[in-house]
Amino acid sequence: MVLLSASVCGLRRLLAICETYAASHGLVYNVKKSQVMVFGARSKQLEGIPSILLNNCCLQRVRKFKYLGHMLTPDLNDDDDIERERRALSVRANMLARRFARCSQQVKITLFRAYCTTFYTCSLWARYTQKAYNAFRVQYNNAFRVLMGLPRYCSASGMFTEAKVDCFYATMRKRCASLVRRVRGGTNGILRMIASRLDCAYLSHCCTTSGGVVRRC
Questions:
Q1: What range does the record give for the signal peptide (predicted)?
Q2: What per-residue confidence (pLDDT) applies to 177?
């Protein structure tokens, strides 16, 4: 359960409503599992925020929180979530290379597409450093090399072309396009209208960042 408010006063009112509802239905919120995060400007960290209470207990303020598998930070920077996905990719790739080393190339390619190209919430990445993004791209390329038993410094674009597998940038473009298609076909009229605008900020991001243009891997 998530409560969002533009002010501390508003958040306190929302919590009061939750406390009243819980008390009338014989429920109790777990304060130890409840936390609060304050979102601020990119370069401005908001300090001195008044305490926020739940059942007369002060909620812990955190600088990082995983919500539905996606890592959130106060400045909405996606570097931590990219690093989370990079490590997960490394684990999956090493597992496949170890367990399926004797399989045919076609089987390995099928496994790579199934386990190493589905990046959870990657289409939401919009604010990150090039260093974090490049590290993830390198991990993607190395995962394919390890699984296929290719030399470490072989051409990434060449090996993906020969195997008829999407390179990193092509994979990211498809994920972004899939999100736009689903939003445009959704039932929320406001989101559908925003996604359909040619000057949509997200579409502009997809077209101007390394995830939205064709570049060498």
A1: 1-16
A2: 86
Q: Are residues 196 and 89 in the same domain?
A: yes
- Domain match, 136 and 170 both: yes
Same domain, 44 and 106: no
Q: Does the residue 216 lie in any domain?
A: no
Residue-by-residue DSSP string for the chain: -----SSHHHHHHHHHHHHHHHHHTT----GGG-EE-----TT-----PPP-EETTEEPEE-S-EEETTEEE-TT---HHHHHHHHHHHHHHHHHHHHHSTTS-HHHHHHHHHHHSS--TTGGG--S--HHHHHHHHHHHHHHHHHHHT--TTS-HHHHHHHHT---HHHHHHHHHHHHHHHHHTSS-HHHHHHHH-TT-HHHHHHHHSTTSS----
Residue, of 152 and 13, whose pLDDT is higher: 13
> Is residue 158 situated within a structural domain?
yes
Q: Are residues 54 and 151 in the same domain?
A: no
173 is a domain residue:
yes
Per residue in 71-90, pLDDT tens? Answer: 999 888 899 999 999 999 99
CA distances from 166 to 23, 25, 160, 162 (A): 53, 52, 6, 10
Q: How many CB atoms lie within 10 A of CB 122?
A: 19
Q: Report the predicted TM-score, pTM, of the whole model to 2 decimal places.
A: 0.81
